[in-house]
Amino acid sequence: MGDYLRVEGLYKSFGREKAVDGVAFGVERGKILTLLGPSGCGKTTTLRCIAGLEHPDAGLIAIDGEPMTSVADAIAVPPEWRNVGLVFQSYAVWPHMTVAQNVAYPLEVRKWPRARIGPRVGEVLEMVGLARYRDQYATRLSGGQQQRVALARALIFNPRLLLFDEPLSNLDAMDAKLREQLRMEIVRLQREVGITSVYVTHDQAEAIVISDEIIVMNWGRIQQRGDARTIYTRPANRFVAEFIGLANLLPAEVTAPAAADRLPGAALALGDGRRVALRAVAPEAAPRVGARVLLSVRPEDVELGPAGAPGEGNRLEGTVASAVYMGDHVDYQVDAGGVRLRVQARSGTTFRPGDRVALTLPPAACVCIPDDSTG
Fold first, then answer.
1. Which residues of 114-132 are buried (b: 16+ CB within 10 A; e: fewer)?
2. DSSP state letter for 366
3. How do beta strands 292-297 and 248-256 pair?
4. Handedness of CA 249, 274, 300, 234 (dihedral sign)
5. How would residue 262 be classed by pLDDT, with cut points 50, 70 and 90?
6. In the predicted model, is pLDDT for residue 174 greater than 70?
7. Which of 60, 77, 134, 209 has its CB 3.0 to 4.6 Å from that of 100, i.e. a possible disulfide?
């Protein structure tokens, strides 16, 4: 299946700063792709270029095969002609209008007949759960309800593409249940309506819940693309490993080529000078023997047991430095030969600071990634 949205060779600079540096991706019809990254990584600028609110220095943007932006061909379709729905982090509701009037406004601008506007407004308000508030002034609603108004306004004219720019950022960070509820609501509506969507966020939880695919960005470039599970369990580099969740990053050297199971041998360099033989998952381009790498292993994948207990493969021994009960798990810091590892073990474990423990790093959970510090 071809890409419904296509972005090729996108570049955008502001003065000497490269905000978007050679970004290229596609989105299949009906799918939702998230651009995820920290502030200033280029995700919002990329979205604004798709919307037509920014003019790139180079690149092509096409929707359903129709060029919206082509710098080489001097094509720049105005935002209002792209038929794209936008949902921003600011609710942007008009205070002098009721909920129904706010939602109807895009149809009035497009000269819809009044006989069609009323039923369509009612349909969309029902869809977002605001039918009972149609005659209230929008600014009297809660933040979550105002964001629903903004979502309804973006959906009302049947856009061919829906763009979200940090839509939940203005909600009270303390109200986790509301944020979770709206995340699920966005997923439901996007699936129900089937609109191809691009979602921008810095929030990993939002990206994981909402996306069919995720693109992780930093410094204006794509760092990795894939589904949430792949990006979490097989990070492509140090930035992705550290930005998505928690990761132990252990310096190592590749000592044997990858076998058929793509598990090369590696020697973990401990801070006290010792080297421990391990096996780990290689990326698509397996590192050469002798290459310095980092072994990325998630805290929840590390198995913890008493020192001296029988076991095999990828084992270290260390001393518990701290243990914090977190309800569903215990968060341990363990010193192993000068290397400190974070371990999230089931809450039934009872190790205390000072206890000697054995650490097992399952080979399939250890991922070789480039050690950027070696140049």
1. eeebeebbeebbebbebee
2. -
3. antiparallel
4. positive
5. low
6. no
7. 134
Please state the length of the chain.
375
The pLDDT, as a whole number, for residue 181 is 85
Q: Which pTM does this prediction carry?
A: 0.90
Q: Is 360 left (phi over 0), alpha (psi -120 to 50) or beta?
A: beta
Report yes or no: 26 and 7 within 8 Å, Cβ to Cβ. yes
Which pairs with CB-CB distance under 8 Å and at least 24 residues apart come from 233-236?
233/298, 233/365, 233/367, 234/281, 234/283, 234/367, 235/296, 235/367, 235/369, 236/283, 236/369
| Residue entry with tokens 């977002």 | 128
CATH annotation of 246-374? 2.40.50.100
Longest alpha-carbon distance in the chain: 79
> If we measure between CA atoms, which residue out of 173, 183, 142 comes closest to residue 34?
183
Helix (H) or strand (E) holding 256: strand 248-256
d(CA 73, CA 91): 35
Helix (H, G, I), strand (E, B) or coil at 368: strand
| C-alpha–C-alpha distance, residues 277 and 255, integer Å | 9
| CA 15 to chain CA mean position, Å | 28
For residue 210, what are its two tokens? 């909402």
Amino acid at 334: V
Judged against a pLDDT cut of 60, whether residue 357 lies above it is answered with yes
Condensed to tens digits (0 to 9), the pLDDT of residues 327-354 reads 989 999 999 988 899 999 987 778 999 9
How do the domains of the chain map onto residue ranges?
3-238, 246-374
Q: How far apart are CA 204 and CA 37, in angstroms?
A: 9
Q: Are strands 197-201 and 32-36 parallel, antiparallel or unpaired?
A: parallel
Q: pLDDT at residue 189 above 60?
A: yes
Q: What is the architecture, at CATH level 2, of domain 3-238?
A: 3-Layer(aba) Sandwich (3.40)
Choose among 334, 294, 332: nearest CA to 315.
Answer: 334
Cα separation, 232 vs 238, in Å, equals 12
